[in-house]
Amino acid sequence: MIGGRRGNLAPVAFRATAHVDRLARRAYGFSRVEARKATVLLVDDDDQVREALSDDLAAAGYEVAAAATGEEALRRLRAGPRPCALLLDLLMPGMDGAELLAKVRSEEGLAGLPVIVLTGLASSKLKGLLGAEAVLVKPFESAELFREIDRVCGRG
């Protein structure tokens, strides 16, 4: 009920959805109706970074699974289903991103998984050293991440 009266809220819901779609198109270049629906596994030990990126990715239409540690990510990858891309922070306690990437590359069912490294380390050599499909240096623009995901997942 709005204003104490019962009525059809469909026009209100439609206007709200249309407004969100306009905002999404302005911010991300597409609307939720045109959502990408690629599934990604985001691995970052920083709760705030993980939450912010998950929200941005979900708002842009991606399905997001998240892990706070390399160990958790490896368990999720082994258990399935396989995401179309692994978004990986390098500097994490325990199993760091480089170690996780090495394990992923050495496992038969995971070796071909596209990896996008998200790091605060600025080096043009990281991509080649790690064997990742892309390296984005934090801070980066969400649109840049979306383009890389679309590219490695065959949607761009």
Name its key features.
15% strand; Rossmann fold; single chain; globular; 156 residues; five-stranded parallel sheet; disordered N terminus; 44% helix; alpha/beta; 5 strands
Summarize it.
With 156 residues, the chain is of the alpha/beta class. The protein is 44% helix and 15% strand.
Structure in words:
With 156 residues, the protein is an alpha/beta fold. It has two domains: 1-34; 35-152, 3-Layer(aba) Sandwich (Rossmann fold), CATH 3.40.50.2300. Helix content is 44%, strand content 15%. The chain has six helices and five strands. The longest helix is centred in the N-terminal third of the chain and has 19 residues, at 10-28. The model is unreliable at 1-18 and 30-34 (pLDDT under 50).
Topology overview:
Elements (H helix, E strand, L loop, with lengths): L9 H19 L10 E5 L3 H13 L3 E5 L2 H10 L5 E5 L7 H10 L8 E5 L6 H5 L3 E4 L4 H11 L4
Parallel strand pairs: 1-2, 1-3, 3-4, 4-5
Helix pairs in contact: 3-4
Strand order of the largest sheet: 2-1-3-4-5
Number of strands: 5
Q: According to CATH, what is the topology of the largest domain?
A: Rossmann fold
Helix content: 40-55%
Helix and strand content put the structural class at alpha/beta
Given this structure, which CATH class of the largest domain is correct? Alpha Beta
**N-to-C series of helices and strands:** HEHEHEHEHEH
**Beta fraction:** 15-25%
Low-confidence stretches: 1-18, 30-34
Give me the CATH architecture of the largest domain, please: 3-Layer(aba) Sandwich
Report the total helices.
6
Radius of gyration: 18 Å
